[in-house]
Amino acid sequence: MGTQNVNDLQILSGNFTERKLTRREAARILLSGIAAGAAMPWGTQAHPIWKHFEDEHLMSYAEAATADGKLHFLNEQQFESFAAMAEAIVPASTKANVAGFVDLLLSVDQEKNRKEFLNSLSAIEAESKRKFNRQLIGLSVAEKDDLFSLIAMSHKMDSSQRLFSSFVNLREWISGAYYSSEIGMRELGWTPDRVFAEFPGCSHAEGHG
């Protein structure tokens, strides 16, 4: 992604006015920040979502392709399950259209990454049914918080490594999709007249770290 000094991010601020920040612009800022050494909340450059951010054509297409609410890869049940998980982990994910954006990215992703996503989602759903005898979309806010907090702490048990890995995989899809939206960018500190020099810590990490 190139080498770029953190201070160079300030130059980007002149490209924006009070209009809506697009996914393409947000992705460009995030990639510039990563190249400059800034850390993303819950983000690792090895995760497949970051490769998508390098595709400016896809990022430009994403705005229109997700606006109509049509599904591109996930079925309705999978979409609703993932959307429920996203909203529980990062409130305002629904408003930022996290699930719709991820669905689009998965539709053009490698089969390996798509299979891993679906397996991860199935693992979380299975744990929801095991603990509460209900699907994710049927859980209360408190139950979802309890479920994800327990899963996030499960890495301390060898028998739960697979479940924890599934949770981390989906959380990174959620994090990348949320923070590449205007809502997420503003939470990180972006404004039309100022681009942050580094990303502050994520405010949604409590209980799911």
Contiguous runs where pLDDT drops below 50 for at least 5 residues = 1-17, 205-209
Number of strands: 0
β-sheet strand percentage: under 5%
Order of helices and strands: HHHHHHHHHH
For the biggest sheet, the summary is: none
Helical region count? 10
> Rg, please?
17 Å
**Residue-averaged pLDDT:** 82
Helix content: 55-70%
Number of domains: 1
Give the CA-based shape: globular
Instruction: Give the terminus-to-terminus CA distance.
Output: 27 Å
Task: Report what the structure shows.
With 209 residues, this protein is mostly helical. It has one domain (6-188). Helices cover 57% and strands 0% of the residues. It is built from ten helices and no strands. It has helices at residues 9-12, 23-35, 48-53, 56-67, 76-89, 98-107, 111-132, 141-152, 161-179, 182-188. Helix 2 packs antiparallel against helix 4 (56-67), helix 4 (56-67) packs across helix 6 and helix 5 (76-89) crosses helix 6. The chain starts with 8 loop residues before the first helix and ends in a 21-residue tail after the last helix.
Features:
mainly alpha, 10 helices, 209 residues, single chain
SSE inventory with pairings:
Layout: H1 9-12, H2 23-35, H3 48-53, H4 56-67, H5 76-89, H6 98-107, H7 111-132, H8 141-152, H9 161-179, H10 182-188
Briefly, what is this?
This protein is an all-alpha fold and 209 residues long.
